[in-house]
Amino acid sequence: MGHSAAVWDSKIATENVKDWNGIDQIVLRNPHGASARVSLHGGQVISWRNDRGEELLFTSSKANGKAPKPMQGGIPICFPQFGSCGSLEQHGFARKKIWIVDQDPPSLPANDSNRKSFIDLLLKPSEEDLKFWPHSFELRLRVCLGMDGNLTLISRVRNIDGKPFSFSFAYHSYLSVSDISEVRIEGLETMDYFDNLCHKERFTEQGDAITFESEFDRVYLSSPNCVAVLDHERKRTYVLRKEGLPDVVVWNPWDKKSKAMADLGDDEYRQMICVDGAVIEKPISLKPGEEWKGRLEIVVVPSSFCSEDL
Ligand SMILES: O=P(O)(O)OC[C@H]1O[C@@H](O)[C@H](O)[C@@H](O)[C@@H]1O
Fold first, then answer.
1. Distance from residue 82's CA to the centre of ligand 1 (Å)
2. Ligand 1 pocket check for 74: Cβ under 6 Å
3. Using omega within 30 degrees of 0 as the cis cutoff, is the peptide bond preceding 134 cis?
4. Global pTM?
5. Domain spans of the chain, in order of start
6. Which residue has the higher pLDDT, 272 or 10?
7. Are 95 and 101 in contact (CB under 8 A)?
8. Which EC numbers does the record give (predicted)?
9. Which of 83, 153, 200, 254 has the most CB atoms lying inside 10 A of its own CB?
10. Which residue has a Cα nearest atom 4 of ligand 1?
11. Which CATH class is domain 5-309?
């Protein structure tokens, strides 16, 4: 791209475009050719490419992004509820809303914004949202693309209400994989989990890394801050580093009868694995004026990387 790191200006490394429904998207670029695309529909990262132009996130071929339905793929934001554990619609309303760009974002710590392309999006409840979830909040999402191509999402939820509220949260990250049979997840061994396929019953994971042979839908509880998703065929490992996000969701619909398959093309379940940094078991409680922060960084490394390096 011809930009040296010394003169790279994160402000000029962003481009505003419109999707086929006229909804704004922001494209972040780094000087080496990596990019990330964020839609104001849902505050959803819908594409993340490395410096060779390879897509790192899965998106369903059936995704048309037509509001209000969220796109099946990328990184939808689940807030203020995860799944169906609450009175709201599945995964809450944030992923269906039109967010706004904060043109004058507050400064964040230097290690979060220094020499990165980034954009800050904001979501505040509409009158309609307040009818279903009567809590005034501000949700700020910062999406950063690093010089090294790493993708970082930082969310801040502030209670701007007069009374406390609590919420769940997840970065529902659809990672692109060569084939689900080639995938192994390390870092969740011996963790307790709720199995959504067994009435949310609690089990303990055995000592082995996770592999896939059928539908999988689990919430790992209080897990380590680093989880590796290895793709043997592509010789690629995604390393997820998280802060303020104790739980990890691992999901692949597999079963053709699964309702989620309606939004996926034939056999597309093979090309994706959802691994979310999340807060589910113990929802976050905020008193008036308090703020919560959750951070997820995804790094892609060659598969020679071993889990001992985590
Ligand atoms: O189809 P949605 O609403 O985007 O949800 C996708 C999946 O998300 C998972 O996290 C849930 O555990 C599944 O049950 C659900 O099907």
1. 9
2. no
3. no
4. 0.93
5. 5-309
6. 272
7. no
8. 5.1.3.15
9. 153
10. 72
11. mainly beta
